[in-house]
Write a structure and sequence with these properties.
Blueprint (H helix, E strand, L loop, with lengths): L8 H11 L2 H8 L6 H11 L1 E3 L14 E3 L2 E3 L3 E3 L5 H4 L3 H11 L4 E4 L6 H7 L4 E5 L5 H14 L3 E5 L9 H6 L9 H8 L2 H8 L22 H8 L6 H11 L2 E7 L2 H9 L4 E4 L13 H12 L4 E5 L5 H9 L5 E3 L1 H33 L12 E3 L1
Parallel strand pairs: 4-11, 5-6, 6-7, 7-8, 8-9, 9-10, 10-11
Antiparallel strand pairs: 1-12, 2-3
Helix pairs in contact: 1-16, 5-6, 5-16, 13-14, 15-16
Length: about 375
């Protein structure tokens, strides 16, 4: 399969599956327990119909939005994700460059494989730093100071990952960082020699945000062990409120789902929240972000920026979320499969596909600006 034949999410997923060893593909593609929430994230969009308006004079479409104090040329952004250089040797460099080209926001993860300073140089535009709260409070302060020094615009604290989700696909292959695979996993790597050659002929894998604090060389640090041993399950609202004060700028909580928690986030000074169930990778059986969106926007939409992610595969999905009041919509697997398939060229093609789909859908909906979308455009079945 070739990049020019990729027209949608499923095409990119298929191309990535052809390129990646099974354990790595399943790390991206997999989710927790029975993966019910993962499937329902996309299905939730299908339970709502768009109701278009006609004859509205939509020759020109402005799809720009302002979120977390940053202007984006399109209402989607690349959510920060871990381990990107495992999927393609360009990793976060490719995503930063593609996001910058399309005028949108991206982010580097605490578990990123390129330093946030390097990513900042590649993409001086809108950027967030995705942060996990560690038991080591000194590490937390150091990482925040480092992000501020690098000129990162907004802090994004992930709050739904105080322990790792039960990702059974990873258990079956022994997927961990560094690789400590079982026989089933090793066999699948042997079937993708081109990936192995690529991996071995580029710079050594590392986690620059954590290198001075996590020993990855001994081979004992699996992803689930990182979540279980290094992250602090005792994280409280008081801890977050202290972080908000220390950061002193745009501060967003990712992983909020309930109205009560959304209100609390606004009360302690957060400027944004991302409704998210972590792509179905944490608590299986969780409600979808899209289903929660309307009531959360009603509760706090006038106090902070409400965003959402999870299951977004089409421009029409984005329009449905925007019509419910989301300020912007996060993409995860939507750009990770293209990254794995073709590096920067893949991410650019995916973002361009999304841009074209949103523009076309806005014209067909009779909306020339994002703020012309409303719940009048939607009918729930």
């Amino acid at each position: 399969m070739r990049l020019k034949d990729c027209h949608n999410f499923r095409d990119f997923r298929r191309m990535a599956q052809q390129r990646l060893p099974g354990p790595i593909f399943n790390y991206i593609d997999g989710a927790a327990d029975d993966e019910v929430t993962y499937r329902r994230n996309t299905e939730a969009f299908e339970a709502v119909d768009l109701v278009p308006n006609i004859l509205r004079g939509v020759g020109e479409v402005d799809m720009s939005v302002t979120v977390l104090g940053q202007k984006l040329a399109m209402p989607v952004y690349c959510s920060p994700t871990a381990l990107q250089r495992l999927f393609h040797h360009q990793g976060e460099r490719a995503v930063a460059a593609a996001a910058h080209k399309y005028g949108t926001m991206f982010g580097v993860s605490s578990l990123g494989t390129v330093s946030l300073e390097e990513a900042r140089k590649i993409a001086p535009g809108p950027q967030v730093y995705q942060f996990y709260f560690h038991k080591d409070r000194g590490l937390n302060r150091e990482m925040m100071a480092r992000a501020k020094a690098a000129g990162v615009d907004a802090m994004l604290l992930t709050v739904d990952s105080i322990t790792g989700g039960n990702r059974e696909r990873d258990k079956r292959t022994g997927f961990s960082i560094p690789f400590r695979l079982n026989l089933a996993g090793l066999t699948q790597f042997a079937m993708r020699p081109a990936w192995g050659l690529n991996y071995l002929t580029h710079e050594k894998f590392s986690l620059p945000q954590l290198d001075s604090h996590v020993d990855m060389g001994g081979g004992t640090m699996s992803i689930s062990k990182y979540f279980t041993e290094m992250l602090d399950p005792n994280l409280t609202w008081a801890d977050v409120e202290q972080m908000v004060g220390e950061w002193g700028g745009q501060f967003c909580l990712k992983g909020v789902m309930s109205v009560a928690d959304a209100r609390k986030a606004a009360d302690i000074g957060c400027t944004g929240i991302v409704l998210s169930n972590h792509g179905g990778r944490q608590l299986d059986g969780s409600r979808t972000a899209f289903e929660q969106l309307g009531e959360v926007v009603d509760a706090v939409g006038d106090r902070l920026d409400v965003m959402m992610d999870g299951g977004v595969q089409r421009g029409t999905h984005v329009l449905k979320a925007l019509s419910l009041g989301a300020k912007a919509v996060g993409l995860g697997r939507y750009y990770l499969f293209p990254l794995a398939a073709a590096g920067q060229a893949g991410v650019e093609r995916a973002l361009n596909n999304m841009r074209i789909e949103i523009e076309r859908a806005m014209k067909l909906m009779g909306a020339s600006r994002i703020d012309e979308l409303s719940r009048d455009n939607l009918k729930f079945r």
